[in-house]
Design goal:
The protein is mainly α. The chain has 10 helices and no strands. α4 crosses α5, α7 packs antiparallel against α10 and α9 packs antiparallel against α10.
Length: 206
């Protein structure tokens, strides 16, 4: 998916000027309100056969619609370039995070001396899966609103990336400095959240 929130904002403004709801615009075009919502929140472009009906419904020319799409496709914010660079190599991220998870967890199982070791040993894999799903779901839900542009979602991603990375590094340092008792199950769980973030980012680009 391209960086098309500018096109989405353009469509939203035209629709509001015509005093149409997403459902009403969708009915004029023979598509669902969800399809219109995707155009407006930056998740998709209308298909070629809808350009003319869309232009007529919004009271603009086909050339204006196409120009907006063309301009939107050229945009690439610094945030998006940064996120594409950091999170774009999905397989590499999974291999790196997976390897770290296995190493830290294995060291804990072998050397850890925590009184609640059995509970942490059981919950760490479950918690990892929960955080993966939680990070993905949180960002997924935040992108549903029609007025929630992809630029805003980029900011959310950077925030989560910063928090998760800082937390993981801090926990990892504590664990390394005191391997026997310094384990916190979050050392294993946080990589799951980072993986969920990468999963969301690369799914929404498609």
């Amino acid at each position: 998916m391209e960086n098309n929130y500018a096109f989405g904002n353009y469509i939203t403004e035209l629709r509001k000027k015509k005093k149409l709801s997403q459902t009403e615009l969708g009915e004029k075009l023979g598509v669902s309100n969800k399809a219109v919502s995707k155009w407006e929140n930056g998740a998709a472009y209308p298909s070629t056969d809808l350009i003319l009906p869309l232009a007529e419904a919004l009271g603009v020319s086909v050339e204006e619609i196409l120009a907006s799409i063309s301009q939107s496709k050229k945009e690439k914010t610094r945030l998006r370039r940064f996120l594409d660079t950091v999170l774009g190599r999905e397989k590499l991220i999974y291999i790196a995070l997976g390897s770290l998870w296995v190493i830290v967890y294995a060291l804990f199982l072998v050397f850890g001396e925590q009184p609640d070791k059995r509970f942490e040993a059981i919950f760490a894999p479950i918690g990892t899966a929960i955080l993966f799903g939680g990070a993905y779901l949180a960002l997924r839900v935040s992108s549903i609103g029609a007025m929630r542009s992809m630029k805003v979602i980029d900011v959310y991603e950077v925030f989560f990336l910063t928090v998760f990375t800082w937390t993981f590094c801090a926990l990892l340092v504590t664990f390394i400095l005191n391997m026997k008792t310094g384990y916190n199950m979050s050392v294993s769980m946080v990589p799951g959240a980072l993986a969920g973030l990468a999963f969301f980012h690369n799914r929404r680009k498609r």
